[in-house]
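ok so heres the complex, two chains, lmk if somethin looks off
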Amino acid sequence: MPRWAASTVRGFHGAYLRVDLDRGECERRPLPAETLRRYLGGVGLGSYLLYREAPPGVDPLAPEAPLVFAFSPLVGTSLTTSAKFAVVAKSPLTGFLCDALSSSHFAIEGKRMGVDALVFVGRCAVPSEWIAGELRPSANWGRSAAQTEAALRPEGWVAAIGVAGENGVRYATISNEGRHAGRGGLGAVMGAKRLKAVVVRGDRNTTVARPERVTALARALAKRAAGPATAKYRELGTAGNLLAFDRVAALPTRNFRGDRFAAAEALSAEELAPRHGRSRASCASCAIGCEHRYALNGEAPIRVEYENVFALGPLLEIGDPAAVLRASQRCDELGLDTISAGGTLAFAMECVERGLLDKGPRFGDAEAVLYYLEETAHRRGLGDRLAEGSRRLAQQLGSGALAFAAQVKGLELPGYEPRALQTMALGFAVGTRGADHNRSGAYELDFSERVDRLHGSRAAAALAIEPEDRAALLDSLILCKFLRGALEDLYADAAELLQAVTGWDVSADELRAVARRVVALRKAFNIQEGWTPEDDTLPARFLDEALPAGPVEGTRLPRARLRAMIDAYYEARGWCPDGRLPDAVREDLGLDPDTGEMG
Amino acid sequence: MISRSGILLCGGRSSRMGRPKAWLPWGNHPMVAHVVEILGSCVDEVVVVASESLDLPPLDARVVRDREPDLGPLAGIAVGLGACRGTRAFVTATDAPFLTPRFIEAMFERCGPGGAAAPSTRGIVQPLAAVYPARGAARAQRLVREGRRRPLELLKALDFRAVPLDELPDPDALRGFNTPAEYLEAVAEAFGPATATLELLGRARRQFGQPALEVPVGSLASVLGCVAPDLAVCEGGRVHPAYLVSLGGRDFVRDARIPIGPGERVVVFDASVGG
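and the predicted structre for the whole thing:
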């Protein structure tokens, strides 16, 4: 690795490393201060680099498709929850931009390599590992990400793919330290490059503009992070959502045909904790500690998140906690996104019920779930088709199967029933990543008095911009979203943090503009890759079928209502009526009016 | 051939009650279902007139939507009469749990030559426990267009017969309620001591050490007070921002003055749900 002069921008290195896997060469390319200020880091910077580096229309699994690991200005400081990074690429599942976050030491050490991002292009001649600038043939191909990480840990901090990534499963993950850049198949992009692992190691710390101020802010933030606003995450973890979602008929079951689950109590954090030896873990530099692990029969603890339990439990009609936790654990070992794995299996189960598939998994069959997870990761038999995700499988099957494939733009829905959370339904429909609860966050409105969750409206649609923008800023700083309740005014607080770290005279209003810019940039990338207004919608099931018996029986989300909400969302964003970006927004992004290229 | 219709108006804002009257529990049903059942026992069809935004439980009735609910009960009657298939219709509001088939029968039997009748108490006419002819729909619509809001004007235009309450059976049939206290008083009279279920999820359950408890019906504040001081779910007449409270898994509520009825399920969980 070449040495270079220190950056003039505090909190950043002012450069990214472009790694050409074809040639095994690294090139350090500058990142101007203006660019860093416009996009910060994380998903903002990662999206910028993807837009710059990706040839328009590139096949996500082609060698030329870039894979970006983006760090951020706050990484490496003592600010709680700042040890995060974003992985950004064109998704093989959706064909659009995908950004996924992961966290912990990989983020800190990656930035210590002296760059703000790593961009991998090309394809290794043989399965390989990139170890702090050096490309080596992989001795870990065929092993799990965790096994690979253990083997390579003496070399540095490791992000690796599992068997699913190697085999190009379109919802394969990239894993590090038990965390996962989970959604959208970024592991398949890495696998297509024959890149088993990325190992980071460095000694180049960035400096901050006002160290004492950063320390004081970090102390205050840590105190808030340990307060009541994050208590749910500490005491129950995200699995604490399950019972609440069940009670308000927002817990999808049986491939989104039901909204409550008879065995919800058994799968809930409230019940799991006292029965299955709970332990907690946290990412590096985190005062929250949201990760809850449960040990089955004295075995090694298994990480439990709401989405894992939802997707491998109620969605598949499996109520045995041991079966759900084992399936979740197997997904992690194989390198499968639990939400898409569960969503695709649920779709396949309904196809079996309807006779569209001759054989395959059935609702409630936990053994079949484990079997087909394995088959999927290895692309064997039906697993080869399941590895394509629910949308492609539905397209292959025809016969109207797309109507009940619960996905948006190809990304399977997380555990939020859109008919019972209609502002979230809009968030799913317009999400640039697809059906996504981490980029929209519109559910926050549904769980409030500000909107009527069962009657989506134009007013609610306009409000949905708030949580989406907040997420874009948090994911670019990067700070954990679980802090959001502890921040009184995100934009003002973030401006204060950035002032102390970078020395910029950045204001809350400027950061609002950054957030909007990041959202627009992701949209611009999708438009370049062929997005049309028809992509912003929900599957027919959600628009044609009413919710079944229960607290919100008969609730519908009529097409006209969703259409009105989408129109209102575009309008509130200042976008064109068809969802495209007007010239003023494109100019702000620095896009050439003729070629769409970024200047 | 349908002769008698029943029209149930669900258009009110229930502003003093703080929650839709249609969903207030009565026996084992929401109020609207209870009144539909009474109507259904003595008419050929039941039509429920409700605003677009009001969800209703499954009902053995035809639901028509009043697109201009802010125009008052006369507009609702116009919608109902326009939709009903009978020649005459008994019209009632939602908050009429003491209505009886005998009372409705008696009203139908006492119609004047214009086909309309309304009970009268000391000279005060009760137009929301009255019979109207279906042909009155056009007249009702015209009155609404002219800016009239009072159903009594329609009754007068239809040459109605005012029936003294002491000529009618079950005079309690006219009893309604507008405030939480009136509702809870009616509940107490009808059912005696009654309970609701308070369910605790998440941190609330961990802190209180119990998943659910049966509590006396009352205001939401009194229901939530059953877990105080261990849990301060209610503060200053409002639900504390750290919590979300759902009624029966349907509506989220913050106003702790609203009434909680018999058999109702109040669910308390963390406001930071999701993520």
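quick notes: Helices of chain B lie at 31-40, 73-83, 101-109, 136-145, 151-157, 180-191, 202-208, 220-224. thats all i got rn
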